[in-house]
Amino acid sequence: MAGIKTTKMKNQFKDTLTKIATDAQLQTSHLFIFSKMDKAALGVFQAEWPTIATERRREVVQELVEIAEMNFEVDFSPVFLLGMADVDAQVRTQAIAGLWEQEEPALIGPFIHLLRTDEAAMVRAAAATALGQFVYLYELEELEEEYIEPVKQALLETIYLPGEDVDVRRRAVESVAFFSGPEIIQIIESAYYDENDKMQVSAIFAMGRNADGQWRPRVLAELDNHNSEIRFEAARACGELEVAEAVPKLVALIAEDIDLQVQEVAIWALGRIGGPAAREALEHYAESETEALAMAAEEALDEINIFDAALDLFDFDEDDDEEDDDYDELDDYAGKYYLN
After folding, report:
1. Which of 16, 152, 169, 242 has the most C-beta neighbours closer than 10 Å?
2. Low-confidence ranges of the chain (pLDDT < 50)
3. pLDDT (tens digit per residue) in 63-79
4. Is 122 domain-assigned?
5. Residue 271, C-beta contacts closer than 8 angstroms, at least 6 positions apart
6. Residue 234 belongs to domain spanning
């Protein structure tokens, strides 16, 4: 009986896979059969997947990535692992992205292999980004040192590799930025002065990741950059580095910037920085008629509230009048933009 049941389920899986491959329009509901596949289903998938048209394979993997980002209960890892060996570069790239939350050291080897050998720059760039997750885990002391040295070596080789595509190099710079030390500082500094605008954008992003206080004046100044991508990354870096001096400029960005994404990340940064002026601005924008800004402000306020609740668990001296004075100038500046 067990064998009959297994055969029936196997046939049902194959029928659904056929629909996924041949339907004129991909039905998202069908894709959940790929979550937590058993051995029999995996065998069918391995046999049938290469026969599916390239465009449909791309569509499937992209849809699986989006589902996984919204639903943490699904697990499409086998699909993504097989996808990394797909003949199509776009599928390989999407498959790497699908493994973004995986922390298994066993993935380090395949990612390094793709970074060093894949013929497609988009795949190498995705692999460089994926390796950044392991650098981050190492910095959190959640990954043993034996695993991290090959990662660091591969990223540094990529950064210094003559003729390497700029998108691959910039992703390597972003990933290596989690490390500390003079060499990493120099890499970020060189990227910042690179003639390529994209590399400069990555340098600002890397400054936030690097968490070194020396970058605070730099990212603060870049909030005024004419390039919206750099303003975006500068705002994010100000949040990562908790640059309190950036609050007035961030408030100004929310009020005046023509790029909605810059406005949203400025709101996010205020949530990370905190303080009376930031809270006042966020409370104002939580009532914004622009839905995206209102939602971003509510989320940022949640972050401030969580932090404040944690602080309430500790006793502090009442004698903090001088610190309150530090915020007066910020309050005055912020009021210019959102108070009647």
Report:
1. 169
2. 1-2, 5, 322-327, 329-331, 333-335, 337-340
3. 999 999 999 899 999 99
4. no
5. 239, 278, 282, 299, 300, 301, 302, 303, 304
6. 212-340
CA angle centred on 240, ends 237 and 244, rounded to 5°? 90
The total number of structural domains that make up the chain: 1
Tell the residue number behind the tokens 């026969």, with chain if given: 51
Task: Report yes or no: 217 and 235 within 8 Å, Cβ to Cβ.
Answer: no
| Prediction pTM value | 0.86
CATH number where 314 lies: 1.25.10.10
Does residue 71 belong to any structural domain of this protein?
A: no
Cβ pair 78, 45 in contact under 8 A: yes
**Taking a C-beta distance cutoff of 8 angstroms, is the pair 173, 152 a contact?**
no
* 222 φψ region: left (φ > 0), alpha (ψ -120 to 50), beta (else): alpha
Task: Quote the distance between the C-alpha of residue 145 and its chain's center.
Answer: 24
Whether 61 is covered by a domain: the verdict is no
DSSP annotation of 196 reads: S
